[in-house]
Amino acid sequence: MTAPSSTLAGQRTLLNKVPEVTAYFWIVKVLCTTVGESAADFLNVNLNLGLTGVSVVTGVLLAVALVFQFRADRYRPVAYWLTVALVSVFGTLVTDNLTDAAGIPLETSTIVFGVLLAITFLAWYASEKTLSIHSIVTRRREAFYWLAILFTFALGTATGDLMAEVLGLGYLPTGLIVAGLIAVLALGWRLGLHPVLAFWFIYVLTRPLGASIGDYLSQSPDNGGLGLGTTATSLIFTLGIVAVVIYLSLSKIDVTPRETPPPATVRGGLWQTILVVGLAVVASVIGYAVRTSALQSDSASAASAVTPAQTGTGAAPPVHQSPLGDLSQFKTITQDTLTKLNSGDQSGATSRVDDLETGWDNAEARLKPKNQAAWTTVDGKIDTVLRQLRATSPDPAAEKAALNDLLAALG
Questions:
Q1: Please, are residues 194 and 266 in contact by the beta-carbon 8 Å criterion?
Q2: Of 110, 113, 99, 117, nearest in space to 55 by CA
Q3: Rounded CA gap, 330 and 307, in Å?
Q4: Is the terminal CB of the chain with fewer CB neighbours within 10 Å at N or C?
């Protein structure tokens, strides 16, 4: 069957290029999101490709998938969901590169991607007079759609990491908070909230939800996870995606029928968008201010609780006492990693250093307010250790030097 040849504003009209929004849509979306988080970690850590290498490989694969997606004349489950999965990985890597490689704070990334998403929606609406995914029937609308999808994944990654790491909520509590927000929006959708507004808000929030699930499953029990690892987590969810997509391909239950009329126009989208976005921004700013203030108060209390016996008789602490407090957890991991390297166990050292990264990220909200300069110094040395141990061709001498340098910084 060939695509319709009618035109819309001078453009060739196709059958709708995206699936119907059913329960299966959200199931596969969350699965893709979880794979995006765990697969990025797997490629970066387990295969030692590094952020740059993973980004290049994923970018090329995404470009190829988009070519097939744009060339399709209708919604094809395999092509569509493969593209979503790759956008999920690539969107995660965009935020990770900005944070880890460029040193851009997650607060800045969240704001920037939020603004870019808003600009995309404004340009999309100005051009097409709709943001509905039920009418992705031209190449231009499809281009806006995939650009918006990319920014939702990048924004969701930055927001989730900001909540879990910078604000110290942890991935599981972050996931529960996000799940609650999704439930509220879904209820609002049922009670009359504009469907397009509700859809895109929920779409953004499923990113930190899926990431929280992935991190909870893959992280070690010492860090509050189930210890499945990124390899097993990626494999489980990838198989889940394959199973559901095969079912959708055979059943075609999420394909928009050709004769289906366009959905009726729903009024009130503009004022609802202004109200909901405004409330979200205000609540986010207040929540961020309250949480950071609490973290700073906790750090100040911890610092004032240090007794003269702990710091010596003078005003200054002993040389071995870090201004960040007790860092013995990280010293132990670093020494374990060095010991494995000295015994020739490269794979064991690379595996052990994962605990260093996870533990340091989880402690960021607690440690950083104590002394930002000291935290930045140690954080930079940890980044050096991670780069050396995850290099495609690791140099044992450089690895040991980086680990010894970190041990000295840890006290």
A1: yes
A2: 99
A3: 23
A4: N
Spatial separation of the C-alpha atoms in residues 315 and 247, rounded to whole Å: 69
| One-letter amino acid for residue 106 of the chain | L
The whole-model pTM stands at 0.79
Q: Are strands 7-8 and 11-12 parallel, antiparallel or unpaired?
A: antiparallel
Contact residues for 361 (Cβ-Cβ < 8 A; gap 6+): 165
- List helix spans (H) across 129-194: 139-161, 171-191
Sign of the Cα pseudo-torsion (283, 287, 290, 293, in order) = negative
CA distance 293 to 286: 11
Q: Count CB atoms within 10 A of the CB of residue 52.
A: 12
- The alpha-carbon radius of gyration of the chain (Å, integer) is 24
Tokens of 382: 């940890």
158: exposed, middle or buried (Cβ count in 10 Å: 0-12, 13-18, 19+): buried
Question: With bands split at pLDDT 50, 70 and 90, how would you rate the model's confidence at 310?
Answer: very low
Q: Which of the pair, 357 or 251, is modelled with greater confidence? A: 251
Could you give the CA distance from residue 291 to residue 165 in angstroms, rounded to a whole number?
Answer: 12
SS3 134: helix
Name the pLDDT band for 122 (thresholds 50, 70, 90): very high
Distance CA 11, CA 26 (A): 30
d(CA 248, CA 232): 24
**Paired tokens of 355:** 């605990």
Q: Which two tokens stand for residue 3?
A: 């695509």
Residues 6+ apart with CB under 8 A from 363: 329
